[in-house]
Design brief:
Domain FAD dependent oxidoreductase: 32-385
Pfam family, one: DAO
CATH class of the domain at 1-123 and 185-252 and 347-401: Alpha Beta
Order of helices and strands: HEHEEHEHEEHEEEEHEHEEEHEEEHHH
Protein name: Gamma-glutamylputrescine oxidoreductase
GO molecular function, one term: oxidoreductase activity
InterPro entries: FAD-dep_OxRdtase (IPR006076), FAD/NAD-bd_sf (IPR036188)
Length: 432
């Protein structure tokens, strides 16, 4: 696994609520399953497998939740982040329905894990999708009807433009769709709580233990600089940071940069003015804005996804004008934290969940396209079901979806996708 960013001083790192002891792998070790990557996917696959009686070792190149898991916007949103209807031809209508339901159930997986194990992660319920244009508002109207047809269990409310002050203290939007079944949380503290749970279940977590080589076969050997894991089964959960470890998978994922800033703590009165009901909010544009309030009333504002592969030297300087377009009332407020992270995106923007064709004892889950908190938990359960030889219709459906390898190799992959996303933004502008 490769490191694309140094560990940042994020708001989440500054407010983490626990430290874990996860010594590096030293020497040989045995396990039923070896997992590469200790983000949400790896941690929750380990939990699901340990609960089913498997012995598990997790190798992490950096620290627990070092990648997108510990840096994301903290929005826990139903669905898998993409319109599944576009895949009805390959999945069938019933297959689409199964995956749509999994996208709803995934949020409940997180809810249950937090509640059952008392994980303190500032979980709050309430989310609103924002419409920047009349066309966006029509999309929300159709989404509301689709949720009704699915029998969605939570309150969903369409908000007209004249009532948007109930949702957000900004004049930027023409409407919104409130969903009380989605919400927001402190992602790093969720991951650390899940890591502690995994350890209680007997999982061995090894930080600073980058997997550098895999010997495939009926018994797999995963090598690090200081040790080797012998296992019957391997799960690759490195997502955007998998690098050269398994090119057949890393070539299907583009690592796109996303950016977040956190303001100084705001007064209770100002915070209530910005986001009256303390929901998470995001818009529907290709280069979307997403934001919410932290537990100590900072505005966490993110977005500006970059597909070029480049990093920003001054994230706050880049993001602050975007934040002020939404909330000009924050012009005098300080930015206390700024950070970046890598999102794994596939060509069709669907999660990639399956097993290697040539190596049936090697499983993978990746490419959540910025919708990872709930989808990782869903993927972890599906992978654990497949490894445990349980019937998993969801795993079989995801595994049946073909995923294109990005053309151009390492050098051209990012520029080509950047060009493609620029085309989508032009179409979005033309559609206004």
């Amino acid at each position: 696994m490769t490191s694309l960013f140094s560990s940042p001083q994020t708001y989440y790192n500054a407010t983490r609520n626990r430290q874990l002891e996860c010594p590096p792998l030293e020497g040989p070790a045995q396990a039923d399953v070896c997992i590469v990557g200790a983000g949400f996917t790896g941690l929750n696959t380990a939990i699901e497998l340990a609960e089913r009686g498997h012995s598990v070792i997790v190798l992490e190149a950096q620290q627990i939740a070092w990648g997108a898991t510990g840096r994301n916007g903290g929005q826990l949103i139903r669905g898998i982040g993409h319109d599944l209807g576009a895949h009805e031809k390959s999945l069938g209508r019933e297959g689409v329905k199964v995956l749509e339901q999994l996208g709803l159930d995934a949020v409940d997986l997180v809810r249950q894990r937090v509640q059952q194990h008392g994980i303190e992660c500032d979980l709050r319920w309430g989310h609103c999708e924002l419409a920047n244009t009349p066309r966006h508002f029509q999309n929300l109207l159709a989404e509301q009807q689709a949720l009704k047809n699915q029998g969605y269990a939570h309150k969903v409310e369409l908000v007209e433009q004249q009532d948007m002050h109930r949702v957000v203290g900004s004049d930027r939007y023409v409407g919104g769709l409130i969903d009380e079944g989605s919400g927001h949380l402190h992602p790093l503290n969720l991951a650390l709580g899940e890591a502690a749970l995994a350890q209680r279940l007997g999982v061995r977590l090894c930080e600073n233990s980058a997997a550098i080589r895999i010997d495939y076969g009926s018994r797999i050997r995963v090598h690090t600089a200081t040790g080797v894991v012998h296992a019957k089964t391997l799960v690759l959960a490195g997502n955007a940071h998998l690098g050269d470890l398994e090119p057949a998978l890393s070539g299907k994922v583009l690592a796109a940069g996303s950016y977040v800033v956190a303001t100084e703590p705001l007064s209770a009165a100002l915070a209530e003015t910005l986001i009256p009901a303390n929901r998470a909010l995001c818009d529907q544009r290709v280069g979307l804005d997403y934001y919410r309030l932290s537990a100590d009333r900072r505005l966490l504002f993110g977005g500006a996804c970059h597909y070029s592969g480049r990093t920003l030297k001054d994230i706050a300087g880049y993001m602050r004008p975007k934040m002020l377009e939404v909330f000009p009332q924050l012009v005098a407020k300080r930015i206390d934290f700024q950070w970046s992270g890598m999102i794994g995106i596939g060509a069709n923007r669907l999660p990639q969940i399956g097993r290697l064709q040539a190596q049936p004892n090697v499983f993978y889950a990746q490419a959540y396209a910025g919708h990872g908190i709930n989808t990782t938990h869903m993927a972890a359960r599906l992978v654990a079901e497949a490894i445990s030889l349980e019937h998993s219709k969801g795993f079989d459906l995801f595994a049946s979806v073909p995923h294109m390898t990005f053309p151009g190799g390492k050098l051209l992959r990012s520029p080509l996708l950047a060009l493609g996303m620029f085309w989508y933004r032009l179409k979005e502008i033309a559609g206004h």
